[in-house]
Design a protein that fits this description.
Elements (H helix, E strand, L loop, with lengths): L6 E6 L9 H17 L4 E4 L13 H11 L4 E4 L2 E2 L5 H14 L4 E6 L6 H4 L5 H5 L2 H11 L3 E2 L9 E2 L13 E4 L3 H9 L4 E3 L5 H17 L10 E5 L1 E2 L3 H19 L18 H14 L2 E2 L1 H15 L3 E5 L6 H31 L1
Parallel strand pairs: 1-2, 1-13, 2-3, 3-5, 4-5, 5-8, 8-9, 9-10, 10-13, 11-12
Antiparallel strand pairs: 6-7
Helix pairs in contact: 1-12, 2-3, 3-6, 7-8, 8-11, 9-10, 11-12
Length: 356
């Protein structure tokens, strides 16, 4: 099968650095997205978080819609929409609407998030997290296909037809955030590509993609059209000290996200490590060993390694490790002009050698 071309994009986590207002954070997100388009990047991705001081955006579909309206060529996706917190049918309706308004530039990524207070506060049944993503995902896919059952069990009875229908056939791209064998198998059986995040090394990503391919073959499915996606912190720095400072900040950010208030009782997840100096330092060390943060050469090598090892082709680069908007824009420029072209060349050469 012909390999999917590489796509480089930015992941806007809309995280708040010290002293920043909500307006500062959201304005930075819009500027970074528009600058990414001006640099001919492929994608912009937005996240969903609720009731946190460290992350601002609670409405990824709304922010995606705004960014689609402020851009013309770049694709915009969610990474992710926390599907159990929303009506799957309404998410499908909004996806179809954005698919039309953007001329096919919208990409939907879904996941189930972390079992925190957001489930109760937003009126979702806390049991929805434990039930998993399969049922709401199937309702979403059915609605995108034009069928919304009216019966209580969602499987029998007459169907309603959503309007508008999707513009992109058979449907706009739908990605599934995966972190377990069950979620990998669920995505593979439905032919939906994976979305992998910062906690996975290149080797772990490779194992997950292999698991996906085996499951897809057993289910009689072909590999999905869009390639799998993965997220990394990506920053060109001028010194090891600066690199370590940025990764300590990112480690603190990750731990704060995992320690959401009011974690749902009965979660099958182990309690996350608290935000302590020791845990921040340990996680920063792991990030320093794997993430493309440092010199241009190191960024090229690390990104190429993640792509070659995993087989993923859609790269989501978190480029906002430094607090200032100007810092983020300069970093994005260096990545677009010095790093991404070299990665394309290196991965292309490796693919050509493999085909010989």
């Amino acid at each position: 099968m012909e390999q999917e071309p590489l796509r480089f994009g930015v992941l806007l986590t809309t995280d708040r650095h010290r002293g920043q207002t909500d307006h500062d954070v959201l304005t930075r997100a819009v500027e970074v997205a528009q600058h990414a388009e001006s640099l001919a990047l492929d994608d912009v991705w937005v996240t969903e978080h609720h009731f946190l001081d460290s992350a601002v955006n609670p409405a990824p579909l709304a922010l995606a819609a705004f960014l689609l309206g402020r851009t013309r060529t770049i694709r915009v996706g969610t990474a992710v929409t926390v599907l159990p917190l929303h009506s799957p049918v309404h998410v499908a309706e909004q996806t179809a609407l954005l698919d039309h308004l953007s001329a096919g530039r919208f990409v939907l990524g879904v996941g189930r998030g972390v079992p925190g207070a957001e489930y109760e506060a937003l009126g979702a049944d806390p049991r929805a997290w434990r039930a998993g993503l399969a049922e709401p995902l199937d309702r979403l896919l059915a609605a995108l296909a034009g069928e919304v059952p009216t019966a209580p069990d969602h499987r029998t009875g007459p169907c309603l037809r959503p309007s508008p229908s999707v513009r992109t056939r058979p449907r706009p791209p739908v990605y599934v955030a995966a972190g377990s064998p069950a979620s990998i198998e669920m995505a593979a059986r439905r032919g939906l590509p994976l979305m992998l995040f910062f906690d996975k090394s290149a080797e772990a990503k490779a194992e997950m993609v292999d698991w996906y391919d085996r499951t897809a073959r057993e289910a009689g499915r072909q590999e999905p059209g869009p390639g799998h996606a993965f997220a990394v912190f990506t920053q060109v720095t001028e010194s090891e000290e600066r690199t370590r400072t940025l990764m300590r900040d990112r480690a603190r950010f990750i731990l704060s996200l995992n320690n959401q208030p009011g974690r749902t009782t009965g979660s099958t997840l182990a309690a996350p490590p608290p935000v302590t100096a020791g845990n921040v330092s340990a996680l920063a060390d792991r990030l320093l060993a794997t993430q493309p943060v440092g010199s241009v050469d190191l960024c090229v090598e690390r990104l190429a390694h993640h792509i070659r090892a995993s087989g993923c082709t859609r790269v989501m680069c978190q480029v906002e490790a430094a607090p200032g908007t100007d810092d983020a824009l300069r970093n994005l420029e260096r990545l677009a002009r010095e790093v991404f072209p070299a990665v394309r060349e290196r991965v292309g050469a490796a693919r050509a050698g493999a085909d010989v």
